[in-house]
Design brief:
The chain is an all-alpha fold. Helices cover 80% and strands 0% of the residues.
Length: 125
């Protein structure tokens, strides 16, 4: 290999590394901005809308969980199987926890059961 060819290849490699670095910084910047925008959007939602939004998010988590199960079922290596299993377990915990929180929030808005005073003879059970 000639010196000129080696210089060209090393210049291309360093340019590619610089592109990957700037691409990584751009992705990190987008992620950080998304976190700030998401926080602002969620904090501005009125309390009346939290329960419907959470139930919609739980439905999306269910679809993501089904996708994780399908993809984990078709992996070939032990590392992929381990990561897929961990993703399924964490996704399940996230989805079930979301349903529990949604159920508790719905209980806050339900009316307490009132029994008629004369129906049970006035005795507390």
């Amino acid at each position: 290999m000639t010196t000129h060819a080696t210089a060209v290849i090393s210049a291309e490699v360093s340019a590619a590394s610089g592109t990957q670095l700037s691409s990584g910084i751009a992705l990190l910047t987008i992620f950080v901005l998304s976190v700030f925008v998401g926080f602002e959007v969620v904090s501005k939602v009125s309390t009346v809308l939290h329960t419907p939004l959470m139930s919609g998010a739980n439905a999306i988590h269910g679809v993501v969980l089904v996708g994780a199960i399908l993809i984990t079922g078709s992996v070939s290596g032990p590392v992929q199987l381990t990561l897929g299993t961990v993703a399924i377990v964490l996704g399940t915990v996230n989805m079930v926890g979301g349903f529990v929180v949604t159920d508790r929030m719905l209980e806050m808005f339900s009316r307490p059961n009132r029994t008629a005073k004369g129906s049970d003879g006035g005795a507390d059970k």
